[in-house]
Design a protein that fits this description.
mainly beta, eight-stranded antiparallel barrel, about 55% strand
């Protein structure tokens, strides 16, 4: 089990693009979701799959368990998805020694770009890159489970 300190931001500038190291095409869907727990499957680049269980109600810190699962089983479980299947491309960007995961959403969520920063400690605001927009940590409408199960949030960086 790992604890994660996770912050989420809307992205206000395309300046991060020149820093991107990797891009991963992701299909992500939920099998169960509640106020303090989620069960999700993520298929990456159509070649690997992971099952993730998250527990907790704190916006920045939750318990997370993650396991590799056979791709064929993940594809079968698509039939049991609740809500919409999320399509996104994840880009890895490093800034001041921290790894940011920038998700560019497709499908019905096209136009939404969210940066996530997961660290073992809280990163001070002055260490954050200029291309980040408004912090949306704790705004449940921007969490992947809400994006899959709820409405489409108005995008305002």
């Amino acid at each position: 089990m790992g604890k994660e300190v996770e912050r989420k931001f809307l992205v206000s500038s395309p300046a991060w693009l020149e820093l991107a190291e990797a891009d991963i095409r992701i299909l992500q869907f939920y099998l169960a979701a509640g106020p303090e727990r989620t069960v999700r499957i993520r298929i990456s680049d159509g070649i690997s799959a992971r099952l993730t269980l998250k527990f907790g109600s704190k916006a920045r810190e939750r318990d997370e368990f993650e396991y590799s699962i056979p791709l064929s089983e993940a594809v079968e479980m698509l039939d049991f998805a609740i809500g919409r299947v999320i399509e996104k491309t994840r880009h890895h960007v490093r800034h001041r020694g921290y790894l940011y995961e920038i998700d560019v959403f497709g499908g019905p969520l096209a136009g939404l770009v969210i940066a996530e920063l997961e660290t073992p400690e809280d990163v001070p605001d002055e260490m954050l890159p200029d291309w980040l927009g408004r912090e949306v940590t704790g705004e449940s409408k921007f969490y992947n489970a809400s994006l899959a199960l709820g409405g489409i949030p108005e995008i305002a960086a």
